[in-house]
Amino acid sequence: MAKSRESSLARMISQMQKAFAREAERPRPAAAKPSGSGERQFLQLKITLKGISPPIWRRFVVPNDFTLDQLHGCLQIIMGWSNYHLYEFIVGGKRNGTYYSAPSSDDMEDIFGGFDDYGSENADDYDLNFLSKKGMKFLYIYDMGDSWEHEIVVENANYEYSGDLPVFVLDGKRNCPPEDCGGSWGYANLLEALADRKHPEHRDMKEWIGKFDPEEFDLNDCNAALASRFGTLRKKTAKKTAKKTTKKSSKKQ
After folding, report:
1. Is 197 part of a structural domain of the chain?
2. Domain presence at residue 20
3. What 8-state DSSP symbol labels residue 32?
4. 190 shares its domain with 74
5. Which of 32, 182, 186, 203 has a CA 20 to 30 Å removed from the CA of 237?
6. Are residues 206 and 111 in the same domain?
7. Residues 58 and 111 reside in one and the same domain
């Protein structure tokens, strides 16, 4: 009897420890971060589009003070999507995880009735500071119709970097599927039709998609697009320095 109680207590303690661990590895509100002038920290992440073979993936670096909504903006460029649809992040797994979606909009209100009904947190209120360990994983879902599911893995939680770009891609393979092609199954059918001139859908698919190379990925073009969207770190530093100089000169006068 005593052993049974001890076993039950041990299981309960183990479950509580796991629950606390899961909670510690979930995003915290960005406003809750301690203010300070510490150096910016960077993460090396790998994103892989699930359900596609050979895999479509990118390895990239992003600052951990970016919000989840900013990360979404990065991923649209990094993967090659066009930002036509809704998205969500799932941290902690589909069964027990927390969902983070785009800031509320008229479209979101019409479709889901707002965040309260949908049960999703505002992705712009949470940053990436929770990604503190190598191997941590979470999901990024884009387009609730086609349901493109991506897995994101932390490869380095403290990437050493002193360059100019706040976010950039290190490596990647294969082209992003076209928007609205029907998810992973539709994309497989598209590639099959394009590769076979005798396929009953070959002509229609060719006319719809035009020129498309499933193996194409240009690292330089991708990083140029990221730089255009998010700027450079030096420009921000230069603006701050200019403001300080202006304040000092005005005080002297």
Report:
1. yes
2. no
3. G
4. no
5. 32
6. no
7. yes
Same-domain status, 169 and 72: yes
Q: Which two tokens stand for residue 222?
A: 């991708």
Whether 54 is in a domain gets the answer: yes
CA distance 154 to 45: 5
In a domain, 126, yes or no: yes
Give me the amino acid identity at 24.
A
Indicate if 234 and 159 belong to the same structural domain: yes
Closest CA relative to residue 74, chosen from 163, 157, 152: 152
How far is it, in rounded angstroms, from Cα 47 to Cα 68?
14
Q: What is the pTM of this model?
A: 0.78
- Asked if 224 and 200 sit in the same domain, the reply is no
pLDDT in tens, the chain (253 residues): 566 666 665 665 555 444 445 555 668 778 555 544 457 899 999 999 999 999 999 999 999 999 999 999 999 999 999 999 999 999 999 888 999 998 765 554 555 444 444 568 999 999 999 999 999 999 999 999 999 999 999 999 999 998 889 999 999 999 999 999 999 999 999 999 999 999 999 999 999 999 999 999 999 999 999 999 999 876 544 444 444 444 444 455 4
What residue ranges in 27-147 does DSSP mark as E strands? 42-49, 56-63, 87-91, 98-101, 121-122, 137-142
Taken as a whole, the chain contains a residue count of 253
- Distance in angstroms between the alpha carbons of the first and the last residue of the chain: 84
Closest CA relative to residue 128, chosen from 96, 94, 161, 166? 166
The helix, strand and coil proportions of the chain, stated in percent and rounded to the nearest 5, come to: 40, 20, 35
Q: Which domain holds residue 42?
A: 31-174+217-240
Same domain, 91 and 162: yes
